[in-house]
Amino acid sequence: MTGLVPYWWAVRPRAVHERAVRTIHEGTRALSTSTPEAAPKADRVPAKDKLVTAAPPSKTRAEYRPDIDGIRGAAAIMVMGFHAQVPGFEGAYIGLDLFFVVSGYVITGLLMYEFGKTGRIKWGAFYARRARRLIPAKATMLIGVLALSYFIATPNGAKQTAQSAAAAAGFFSNFYFWQQDDVDYFGHQPGTGVLLHTWSLSVEEQFYLALPVLILVAWLVAKLLRVELMRTLLLTCVILTVASLWLAIVWADPYPKAAYYMPITRAFEFLMGVALALVVRKIRVSYDLREVMGLAGVAICAFVIWKPMPTDGYPSYWALLPTTAAVLMTWAGVGGPTIVTRFLSWKLLVWLGLLSYGWYLWHWPFLVLGEAYNLATPPLWARVVLIMAALGVSWLSYRFIEGRFYKRSGQVSATGKTWGSRRVIIAGVLSMATVAGLAGGAVALNDERAKSPAWQKVDEWQKDVPKMPAECLGSTFIPDRPQQCRLTDFDRKAPTVVLWGDSHAWMYIPGIQAAARKRNVNLVAFVMGACPPYIPPDDSTIACSRNNQMALDFVQRLADRKPPVRVIASASWETYRGSSTPGLIQEGALDGNQSQYIENIAQLFNGGVDDWFETVGSLGIDVDIVGPTPTIPREAPTCEAVPRPYSCDVQRDKAILDEEENVTWLKEQMAEYFPDTSRFIDVTKSLCNESLCFAENQGVLYYFDDNHISAQMSRRLKKQFAPSIRAVS
Predict the structure, then answer these.
(1) How far is CA 317 from CA 249, 328, 643, in A?
(2) How confident is the model over 162-179, as pLDDT tens digits?
(3) Of 379, 382, 449, 601, which one has the fewest beta carbons inside 10 Å?
(4) 52 three-class SS
């Protein structure tokens, strides 16, 4: 994400920064001629391909655009707030889109400036500058994260971090995370994807590699058709922008992860910045119009943060809102200050813009490793502290690492020379190769660590889940599609027990099977992750509604037959009634948009659960209801395996929110609609005492994650389900 930082080379920091941003305007004037003679002789680049300190530029700040850094600073605040889950920043992920547009604009301006002064672009020097700008800070971050992950994350988590570090060193981490099903940008499990944020760095680095191809194509077309190069470049840019946006829209539904991570579906954002840099050299707009443009850009950003856009299939056409805002705010500052550019030139925003590259590099690993250490999302105050700690590290990086590779005042003389482009590029490649080698070593170390007895035990605990017939399962160990799953061979002459509900019904399968052992009883399950019992509306076609309809049809058929049928229903009742939020490791059917999914299911549940009690109760069969099940804030296996400065157990009132209210509601519904022989099954007393709910007790691990009891614990609950089995057998 090089658009996060200024482009400094080989001279005084402030002067170089002024010159770097000023070049966009100078380049537009210089490009009015295609000959190098148009540039002053004193400013010409030496023939040899070496970076040389330039003559001190003008000290005037008349053409310096601090608002560009202000946009970066504001975008950085957006991204930090979104990643830290600060309330009110749910739509602030648009900060990345702003960075992409500004990056395309600034880079194009710099290249235009060089072309205007010399009549050519020295790509070797360009990539040398990119290497010096990107690699030192990035390599430092990758090595630091490899070390921190080894000591903080689980072996599997640290191994994934090492693999992604190698991908980041090779500038293709976006392709790596595209293939990772368990890591999602908009909803990841705590402690995973420590280097997920490097996907955007890779996309930008791939843009730099593709930029010469774009210019070469435009040059060939211009030469072939004998037209002006800049017009051809602009036309080529527009065509590719439309093509990239079209592909992003087309892929949004069938290939959402590819649409999000692939450079070809993100190219239009950079190209909009490129096109703007080309347009402003020919088109000047009035002050009043620029005022309107700037205010409109800010208004768009404020609106999409206030009303977050859908994340399904993003970027799609939704990304046109933040990218258009970036174009408007950037264009508003071309030709002089406006209200918006004055605000964006606020010193704090500019300072954050200068540090934003390092801040972006470090903030995400700090947040995710904080989650890994806490085994849960840290509280808001802790997340803010982690973000500010990352800002402190970015300042150190800016001063003592990035500055080492940018020749600043006092480090070299005005005529001192630096390494040539070829050496800089080779050194950069070797640096990234070294990081990749260290990442390979980290993979091997974590493989060995995973084989230790302690972590082998953790692996066994995490796999202690209910076993179901293979035909009932999809890609996860919790059913994720509507179906009738027969847990035993079905005998039409035998009574039937139907298990109905979400993953909080599924987790009781071992206990029900243990209670039914040696009894001639059919066990049939209609269970899906995040799918509580309810009567679906006629127009609902989602998988959960179809699963509930299949279960209702099955029970209605059996209710009229001679062998008795009994229903055991269970769900995370408090979640769907609005008393709780999804657990850290949510039901297997959920994807990255967990909150929205739960909200939609909760609406269906609250609209159809009363009908469910009434409809099923009208069948005259016994329906046993399992009461609310406690959840714990951390994954039990890992929490119990490693000494922690906190307890893995949890207070009962936090483990089951509004427990008394939900129990009262369930018992009232049962009393009104179900026969007196129906049972309320309270498993809480087996998982908690009067004040505390346990992650582990007397050598038995109660949970295999944070909100599902282990198969071992489920079997210990067989006495809770035995009366239900005896009643029908």
Answers:
(1) 6, 17, 48
(2) 999 999 999 999 999 999
(3) 379
(4) strand
d(CA 359, CA 84): 13
Q: Cα separation of 681 and 567, whole Å? A: 12
Strands (E), 536-660: 565-570, 622-626, 650-651
CA 17-10-277 angle, 5° bins: 45
Residue 173: Cβ-neighbour burial (10 angstroms; 0-12, 13-18, 19+): buried
Q: Is 472-728 assigned to CATH 3.90.45.10?
A: no
Q: Could you report the per-residue pLDDT of 227-278, keeping only the tens digit for each?
A: 888 899 999 999 999 999 999 999 999 999 999 999 999 999 999 999 999 9
User: HSE of 148 in the Cβ direction (CA atoms, 13 Å)?
Assistant: 21
User: The tokens of 125 are what?
Assistant: 């020097």
Tell me the two tokens of residue 282: 């020919």
β-strand 417-420 against 692-693: which pairing, if any?
A: unpaired
Which helix (H) or strand (E) is 323 found in, with range?
helix 320-332
201: left (phi over 0), alpha (psi -120 to 50) or beta: alpha
Q: Say which DSSP state 254 is in.
A: T
H/E/C letters for each residue in 368-413? Answer: HHHHHHHCCCCCHHHHHHHHHHHHHHHHHHHHHHHHHHCCCECCEC
462: closest CA among 552, 585, 346? 585
The CA distance from 662 to 188, in Å, is 29
- The answer to whether 153 and 195 are in contact (CB under 8 A) is no
Radius of gyration of the chain (CA): 31
Burial class, 395, CB count within 10 angstroms (exposed 0-12 / middle 13-18 / buried 19+): middle
Could you tell me which residues come within 8 angstroms of residue 177 by beta carbon, excluding any fewer than 6 positions away?
A: 164, 167, 183, 185, 193, 196, 199, 261
Pairwise CA distance, residues 73 & 79, whole Å: 10
What's the N-to-C CA distance of the chain in angstroms?
66
CA neighbor of 51 nearest in space, from 415, 420, 425, 407: 420
CA-based max dimension of the chain: 102
How far apart, in whole angstroms, are the C-alpha atoms of residue 440 and residue 161? 11
Domain positions in the chain are 2-42+71-136+196-417, 472-728
* 479 contacts 468 by C-beta, under 8 angstroms: yes
pLDDT digits (tens, 9 = 90+) for 61-99: 335 689 999 999 999 999 999 999 999 999 999 999 999
DSSP characters over 59-81: ---TT--HHHHHHHHHHHHHHHH
Concatenated DSSP letters of 523-550 = EEEEE-TT----PPPTT--SHHHHHHHH
